[in-house]
Design a protein that fits this description.
Strand content: 25-35%
Shape: globular
Strand order of the largest sheet: 6-5-2-1-7
Helix content: under 10%
Largest sheet: 5 strands, antiparallel
Oligomer: single chain
Order of helices and strands: EEEEEEE
Structural class: mainly beta
Amino acid sequence: MAWTDGSESTGVESAPAPANTELAVSGRVAVRLESGATVRGTIFDDFADLLPGAGEVNVRADEQRIVTARRWGIAVDDGTLVFVDDAAVEALPTDHQDPATK
């Protein structure tokens, strides 16, 4: 799969990437995970308005864990949720429908 950012990295990128105008809530996407695997899913939320223009936001998930906030919430086709930044997401052509709507 060719990524529009030309990245060869196997991890999820946390640095801000140029805005991708093709990405939007309800859009179908391919997501590159930290493991190097690629999954497909549907964007369920865009958290851009909660993130500062530069830098990271750390959020306490529970008593033991602090996590970094990410821009996109993705409902993966296998039923899991992932949260990623622009560099890890690529919009799919409109012919890649959500399997739940077929």
